[in-house]
Amino acid sequence: MRLLIDTHLLLWAANDTLPDKAIPYFSNENNELYFSSASIWEIVIKRSLNRPDFQINPNDLYCGLVNNGYNELTITSYHSLLAAHLPPYHKDPFDRILIAQAMAEGLTLLSSDEDVSQYSPVIFLN
Q1: Radius of gyration of the chain (CA)
Q2: What is the DSSP letter of 80?
Q3: pLDDT digit of tens for each residue in the chain (126 aa)?
């Protein structure tokens, strides 16, 4: 399975605090794991705002993801245009671009956000 991992799950994986339901998705060697450049950008922004849940060093996270075989998915204009046409179930711009990227690239978004689960294809982990 080709999985785009949402930002919170990336943070939890980096801190070894993944929910039990998520572990099989990360440990299955047949899964291709992707992270979005939007997630790195979100962490940079929210860390600069001193959000306590975003205090990981984004450079360290990026290097760890790449060194552990994750594939980076950059944001394209097509992703941005697709995000503009998503139903308004969720208003967070970072989540909306992840949803659009997953749809455009044929990936399944792995998310811990219940609002995101209204889109497809999403695997919701609570």
Answers
A1: 14
A2: H
A3: 999 999 999 999 999 999 999 999 999 999 999 999 999 999 999 999 999 999 999 999 999 999 999 999 999 999 999 999 999 888 899 999 999 999 999 999 999 898 888 888 889 887
Indicate whether this model's pTM tops 0.85.
yes
Domain boundaries, the chain: 2-124
In order, the DSSP letters of 9-65 are HHHHHHTT---TTTHHHHH-TTPEEEEEHHHHHHHHHHHHTT-GGG-S-HHHHHHHH
CATH assignment of 2-124, among 3.40.50.1010, 3.40.50.2020, 3.90.480.10, 3.40.470.10: 3.40.50.1010
- Per the CB < 8 A criterion, the answer to whether 44 and 7 are in contact is no
Neighbours of 65 (CB within 10 A): 21
